[in-house]
């Protein structure tokens, strides 16, 4: 597994891309997941690119943004081409987005057709650039359950559409995360790891809260401290007969406070978990 730190974790801090890259290298991450807003702002400083990042021993595992899928086609095309240029600049072959902003059961046939058609169009626009469109499992989108996600990929039917398996959101849907991994394994090309202390706090990940500087962070916990069994999931993933899954990119998607402390600790514990040397519940010296 190749682990990335998300620049979105530092969205409310006064911190440079150089400091994030230095932190990632010091904590043995292999890459960064670059938030689209950060990529757009950094475009004014072109010296920061994939070659600069490689100097830290890092790569850009994914560019994460939000496509206006049902906007005017010209608006969508402009956004896709902008993200494609930024992805190439940073050497990433993946652009993450969401499958709309409405749950799968709330769309009628015409709305589903419109969504699927737009996703096909985006994939076709990205294909000449060698870039994949990565859809995240997420509530209040079409990819809100295992069955809906399978239907989405079957209907869009594009080889450059891939899946970001967000473990918490799959669990939130009511699915067994191991069974979901098996069912969706051929679609998965990225993982998001985050956790929560209790299902009662899942609303903290709602966009209007999580992106707000003054939003609640109650219930956000390190990945091995919450209700989702990451120790069991990582063990299952490491022993999975599909070797490709064991070598995919995964991002620690931390939205809470004390970013460096939490991300550094989670990265260390994940490394121990992968090596099967010690318990994932190990308490670090001085923690």
Automatic annotation (TrEMBL):
Alphabetized GO MF terms: isomerase activity
NADP among keywords: no
Species, as recorded: Rheinheimera muenzenbergensis
One Pfam match: AP_endonuc_2
PANTHER family linked to this entry: HYDROXYPYRUVATE ISOMERASE, XYLOSE ISOMERASE-LIKE TIM BARREL DOMAIN-CONTAINING PROTEIN
Domain Xylose isomerase-like TIM barrel: 24-255
Top-level taxonomic group: Bacteria
Protein known as: Sugar phosphate isomerase/epimerase
UniProt entry keywords in alphabetical sequence: Isomerase
Keyword Isomerase: yes
């Amino acid at each position: 597994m190749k682990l990335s730190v998300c620049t979105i974790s530092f969205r409310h801090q006064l911190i440079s891309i150089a400091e994030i890259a230095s932190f990632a290298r010091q904590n043995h991450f292999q890459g960064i997941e670059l938030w689209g807003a950060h990529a757009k702002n950094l475009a004014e400083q072109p010296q920061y690119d994939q070659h600069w990042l490689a100097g830290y021993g890092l790569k850009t595992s994914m560019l994460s943004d939000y496509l206006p899928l049902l906007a005017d086609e010209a608006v969508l095309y402009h956004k896709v081409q902008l993200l494609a240029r930024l992805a190439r600049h940073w050497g990433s072959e993946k652009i993450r987005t969401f499958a709309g902003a409405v749950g799968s059961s709330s769309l009628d046939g015409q709305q589903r057709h419109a969504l699927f058609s737009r996703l096909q169009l985006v994939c076709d626009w990205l294909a000449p650039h060698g870039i994949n469109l990565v859809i995240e499992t997420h509530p209040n989108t079409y990819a809100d359950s295992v069955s809906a996600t399978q239907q989405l990929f079957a209907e869009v039917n594009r080889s450059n559409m891939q899946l970001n398996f967000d473990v918490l959101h799959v669990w939130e849907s009511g699915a067994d995360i191991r069974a979901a991994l098996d069912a969706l394994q051929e679609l998965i090309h990225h993982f998001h790891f985050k956790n929560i202390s209790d299902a009662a706090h899942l609303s903290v990940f709602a966009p209007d809260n999580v992106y707000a500087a003054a939003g609640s962070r109650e219930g956000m916990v390190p990945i091995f401290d919450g209700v989702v069994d990451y120790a069991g999931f990582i063990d299952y993933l490491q022993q999975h007969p599909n070797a490709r899954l064991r070598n995919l990119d995964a991002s620690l998607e931390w939205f809470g406070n004390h970013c460096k402390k939490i991300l550094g600790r989670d990265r260390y514990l994940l490394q121990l978990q992968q090596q099967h040397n010690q318990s994932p519940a190990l308490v670090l010296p001085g923690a």
